[in-house]
């Protein structure tokens, strides 16, 4: 008990077992091999409900912690370990039993060779990374709690209800599951760690459709030391598509769509330019660059150049003309000047041609 207090186990929501437990198969082996019974420490862990050796449900002995002093020595005997004692849980199906056996194996591993300790920050980073790998995080700081919750329940099924202080009705007792992937501020019970780690280990190693990074910045005005300065992509769903948002430290943001139905990854689409745009655009305008030259320099389509110039309050002398197909003309030139077809290898293309407005 002293050791439990040192570990802080007494403060956890997961209750200690209140009776010593035994396995009826083990007691038979003990009698046959040693002529006497003994308590096994692995049978006493809250996360161990079945025997690690025999896989059968543990039984409750008549030795209750509340009836005896914690310093008292009580030997295991056939009398306090009766063969037809009450099982610690009623296992209803094979899936429940499978999960309890697996949890038992993991618990015994931890008991026999405790893992290296981690700091709270270490645990936070560990679970966030594992959540990203499992495809259950939108970014390293945003967990998909709802899916995590659902997938976790789906995986363990009714086994969760057998475990102590895991469920409260249909919800996780004290919201412990969400807390495991939030910032760790206090120690969490080993049972919770084992449940989450076991769940995450079985999740298919989710491979992001956008690759494992890092990713290039498409801002032609930025000078980065690395060819792939974007270290993080945040993902969200848009109907059947997964949208990746690639935001660079220079302020430039682009998106790409992954269509899970066809498995196709769409071309990058410009979203935001950042602070490098305005001085560059002002300079191009001052130099008298044509709209097409400006678009090429900024890697933007003409309509977007005109829109952004308007948003920045930069007065330009270009206009866009819509007549059958897109035409660009400086105000002093004939409006029949044609734009060459879009270069399909352009990294940033826009698909809003039909929406072009006439800007005179
Ligand atoms: Zn056993
Ligand atoms: Zn950048």
Quick overview:
By secondary structure, the chain is α+β, with helices and mostly antiparallel strands. It has helices at residues 2-7, 24-34, 94-112, 120-133, 145-156, 159-162, 176-180, 190-202, 277-286, 291-298, 302-311; strands at residues 19-22, 59-64, 137-139, 142-143, 167-168, 171-172, 233-238, 241-247, 253-259, 264-265, 269-272, 318-323, 325-330.
Q: Mean pLDDT score, rounded?
A: 83
Summed up, the helix count is: 11
In terms of DSSP E residues, the strand content is 15-25%
Number of domains: 4
Task: Assign a percent range to the helix content.
Answer: 25-40%
Shape: rod-shaped
Structural class: alpha+beta
Biggest sheet overview: 5 strands, antiparallel
Q: What keywords describe this structure?
A:
two-stranded antiparallel ribbon, 11 helices, binds zinc ion, alpha+beta, 16% strand, disordered N terminus, 360 residues
Describe the protein in words.
This protein has 11 helices and 13 strands. With 360 residues, the chain is α+β, with helices and mostly antiparallel strands. It folds into 4 domains: 110 residues, no CATH class; 88 residues, no CATH class; 69 residues, no CATH class; 79 residues, no CATH class. Strands 7, 8, 9, 10 and 11 form a 5-stranded antiparallel β-sheet that branches.
């Amino acid at each position: 008990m002293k050791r439990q207090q040192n570990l802080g186990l007494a403060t956890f929501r997961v209750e200690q077992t209140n009776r010593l437990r035994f396995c009826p198969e083990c007691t038979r082996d003990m009698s046959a091999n040693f002529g006497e019974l003994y308590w096994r420490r692995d049978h006493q862990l809250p996360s161990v409900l079945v025997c690690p050796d025999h896989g059968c449900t543990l039984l409750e002995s008549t030795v209750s912690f509340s009836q005896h002093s914690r310093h008292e020595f009580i030997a295991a005997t056939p009398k306090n370990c009766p063969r037809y004692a009450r099982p610690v849980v009623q296992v209803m199906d094979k899936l429940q039993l499978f999960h309890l056996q697996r949890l038992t194996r993991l618990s015994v591993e931890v008991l026999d060779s405790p893992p290296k300790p981690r700091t709270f920050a270490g645990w936070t980073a560990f679970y966030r990374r594992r959540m990203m790998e499992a495809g259950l995080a939108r970014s390293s700081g945003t967990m998909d709690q709802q899916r995590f919750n659902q997938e976790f329940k789906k995986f363990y099924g009714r086994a969760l209800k057998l475990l102590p202080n895991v469920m409260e009705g249909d919800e996780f007792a004290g919201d412990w599951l969400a807390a495991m992937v939030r910032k760790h501020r206090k120690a969490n019970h080993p049972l919770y760690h084992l449940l989450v780690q076991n769940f995450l280990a079985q999740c298919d190693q989710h491979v992001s459709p956008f690759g494992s990074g890092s990713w290039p910045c498409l801002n032609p005005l930025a000078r980065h030391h690395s060819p792939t300065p974007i270290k993080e992509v945040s993902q969200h769903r848009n109907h059947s598509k997964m949208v990746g948002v690639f935001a660079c430290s220079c302020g430039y943001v682009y998106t790409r769509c992954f269509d899970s139905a066809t498995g196709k990854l769409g071309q990058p689409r410009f979203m935001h330019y950042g602070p490098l745009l305005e001085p560059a655009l002002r300079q191009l305008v001052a130099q008298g660059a044509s709209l097409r030259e400006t678009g090429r320099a900024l890697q933007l389509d003409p309509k977007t150049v005109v829109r952004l110039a308007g948003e920045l309050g930069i007065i330009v002398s270009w206009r866009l003309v819509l007549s059958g197909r897109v035409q660009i003309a400086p105000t002093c030139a004939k409006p029949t000047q044609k734009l060459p077809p879009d270069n399909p290898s352009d990294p940033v293309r826009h698909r809003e041609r039909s929406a072009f407005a006439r800007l005179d």
